From TrEMBL:
Keyword terms, alphabetized: Ribonucleoprotein, Ribosomal protein, RNA-binding, rRNA-binding
Protein name: Large ribosomal subunit protein uL24
Coiled coil stretches, renumbered: none
Role, per record: One of the proteins that surrounds the polypeptide exit tunnel on the outside of the subunit. One of two assembly initiator proteins, it binds directly to the 5'-end of the 23S rRNA, where it nucleates assembly of the 50S subunit.
The species this protein was found in: Helicobacter brantae
Length: 75
């Protein structure tokens, strides 16, 4: 498990991938897999089952983890 300079709540800029150039806040850091979840970046469509709150089910958009090497800390 490595130690990273990027922490939860930091403002980062995406330097590689489909969201290159976007700036967002770090929501989660996964040190074991060297991944971060950045607010508004790498959005995926996820199917959800019907529940009491949402009887129809359907789809939601949420952020997926990306490699920590694809982001850099903003000053």
């Amino acid at each position: 498990m490595a130690k990273f300079k990027i922490k939860r709540g930091d403002s980062v800029k995406v330097i590689a991938g489909d969201d290159k150039g976007k700036v967002g806040k770090v929501l989660f850091v996964y040190p074991k897999t060297a991944q971060v979840v950045v607010e508004g970046c790498k959005m995926v469509k996820k199917a959800i089952k019907p529940t009491e709150e949402n009887p129809k089910g359907g789809f939601i958009n949420k952020e997926a983890p990306m490699s920590i090497s694809n982001v850099k800390k903003e000053q």
